[in-house]
Amino acid sequence: SVSTKKIPDDWVGEVHDDSLILSPALYKIRFDPSYSLGSVTNNATFNGLPRSDVYIFAALFYFPDNFTNFLEAVLDSCKQLEGAVCNSALQTKIKNAFAVHGIYPASSQNYPDKYEPNNGPEWATNFSTFSTLSAFIDYSGDLDYYSIPLGEGLFTASMNLPAGSVSGMYHGYSMFLFDQNRKYLAESVPEIYSCPPVPGSKECLTLSQTNSLSYNITSPGRYYLMVSAALSDYGGNSADYNTSRPYTLSWQGNIKGSAQAWLYSSAFDADEFRFRVKYPKFEYSVNPASSAWTGGAEIKFVYARLLDHNKSPIPLTETNNPSSFMELSYGPAYTLDAQNNPVMEGRVRMKSGFSARYPAIGTVYIEIFGTNHMDNVGKSTNTVSLGVTEALSLSTNKSDFVAYNNIINSSNSKTYLKYDAQGAGDLSIKVYTSYGTLVKTVYKGQIQAGKGTFEWDGTNESGSKVASGIYFVKTEGPGINKVDRVAIIR
Questions:
Q1: Element at 304 (helix H, strand E)
Q2: Three-state DSSP class for 457?
Q3: CB–CB of 383/302 below 8 Å?
Q4: pLDDT at 381
Q5: Which residues have a Cβ under 8 Å from the Cβ of 212 and sit 6 or more positions away?
Q6: Residue 8: is the preceding peptide bond cis (ω within 30°)?
Q7: Across-strand partners of 366?
Q8: Average pLDDT, whole number, for the chain?
Q9: In the prediction, which pLDDT does 284 show?
Q10: Is pLDDT above 60 for 317?
Q11: How confident is the model at residue 64 (pLDDT cuts 50, 70, 90)?
């Protein structure tokens, strides 16, 4: 008799062998009387057709990238297509057929990696707001996906590999970079010296403790970074994993410019900005899944928010928060840009009270968030950053300069230098000692009308920390001629 293949026990890293884990589950809900789903009865388009065929077909429009994704997509297709008819008994049949092959709903899986499930683009971890993490390859066949919006420039990812069972050797985890349309761009695969090192082991080990990937981003947008076990001899991800020793992953790159924005109308505390961001679109003529997904769009808009000049989130600026100081004033509309890329466009508007709540904020960025078909399916949220704009200046009703947070000490490493200019022109911000000696030129150049924020970290032109004392920040610009003080306590 043919043995029943399961994940993770029977994963080998070869597409044909590994497909025999999923395909029998699909066969069961189609032909096995114990799991048969019957025919569709509550959907005018598909009534009378085998539920298995319709659900499996519909699940493909969720773009599942692993077996758990596929199960969740079949379950959600059942609910979307037949509503209340998709009762617990019907769902249990589907779950039981997949469970025979070790495939369970995400909510029932318990792994040490807090980012699970993230083993596919549909469940990718949003990696835009932090740059370092610690995670696991939890089981044979596991893939970890991270979603990152990137503007033009060099992107680098670095990984410290977990130690293997052989002294001086490490799990040979690999990295791959894809664009939002799943187009392969780059990879970094360490040289494997032992796979497996001892009989009965699934470890694939390398002599290198680190792995790094670099890629020059020329087309701003959203990207996926994938981490997998070492590649097998067949080119798939091997059965190697480790649930006690994590890998650490960090990245560096430019996120600004991964979305676009322009000032649509200017008014103090009521600026309105138009934004545009790319999203993935896969054409099809009929969408048999959720009615919320139309026209081939994989992503729908969720909210926008503001970031400060350091690209840190500004609280109470999310457009889906009724207490927010920013609201969605138009859209989003789904259209094409001049290069025929699918884009979503909309407008956001500032609300009265923002400047009083955040007096030190002048330079801002807008970050756009969206979600995909797997939203809230087996995961607390599947919202990811689609992009971050270039820096934007808020409008002002005065000409002024203020040094905020102006005591630099062991608990405060920098002061925020905020200007208000009612016209465009040259701006210079210079720091002097009490004797009039120039310490540092923080900024010298052109500005547009509006607010802006810079910072000084208590260093001189060479980057060395200056001594304790009182320093004077002199600012000259359009309608501005002011000196403010900063105290440094070492």
A1: strand 300-307
A2: coil
A3: yes
A4: 64
A5: 156, 157, 158, 159, 188
A6: yes
A7: 306
A8: 91
A9: 66
A10: yes
A11: confident
Please report, as a single letter, which amino acid is at residue 415: T
Query: How far apart, in whole angstroms, are the C-alpha atoms of residue 324 and residue 251?
Result: 31
Q: Report the helix count and the strand count for the chain, using DSSP H and E.
A: 5, 27
Q: Yes or no: say if 313 and 319 are a contact pair by the CB < 8 Å rule.
A: no
- In this prediction the pTM is 0.90
pLDDT of the residue at 1: 42
Compute the residue count for the chain.
490
Is the predicted pLDDT of residue 106 greater than 60, yes or no? yes
Helix, strand, coil fractions of the chain, as percent rounded to 5: 15, 40, 50
pLDDT number for residue 327: 97
| Contact (CB, 8 A) for 429 and 436 | no
Q: Are 366 and 391 in contact (CB under 8 A)?
A: no
Q: Measured between alpha carbons, how far is residue 306 from residues 309, 361, 390 in Å? A: 10, 11, 12
Taking a C-beta distance cutoff of 8 angstroms, is the pair 65, 121 a contact?
Answer: yes
Spatial distance between the Cα atoms of 482 and 484, rounded to a whole number of angstroms: 7
Phi, psi (rounded to 5 degrees) for 348: -120, 150
Mean pLDDT, residues 111-136: 90
Which residue type sits at 244? S
CA distance linking residue 73 with residue 70, whole number of Å: 5
Which distant-in-sequence residues (6+ apart) come within 8 Å of 214 by Cβ? Answer: 154, 155, 156, 157, 186
Rounded (10°) angle between helices 67-82 and 88-99: 160
- Tell me the CA distances in angstroms from 139 to 8, 239, 334, 462, one per residue in order: 6, 8, 39, 50
| Beta bridge mates, 60 | none
Tokens coding 60: 């493909």
In the numeric block, the tokens 């996120």 are attached to 255
The strand order across the sheet containing 415-421 reads: 400-404, 415-421, 450-456
CA–CA gap between residue 90 and residue 96 (Å, rounded):
10
pLDDT digits (tens, 9 = 90+) for 321-342: 999 999 999 989 989 999 999 9
Using the predicted structure, report yes or no on whether residue 487 has a pLDDT greater than 90: yes
Give me the amino acid identity at 296: G
Residue showing tokens 């009521």: 270
Q: Which residues of 422-457 are buried (b: 16+ CB within 10 A; e: fewer)?
A: eeeeebebbbeeeeeeebbebbeeebebbbbbbbbe
Query: Could you give the CA distance from residue 371 to residue 374 in angstroms, rounded to a whole number?
Result: 8
Alpha carbon distance 317, 151 (integer Å): 23
Hey, what are 99's tokens?
């469970």
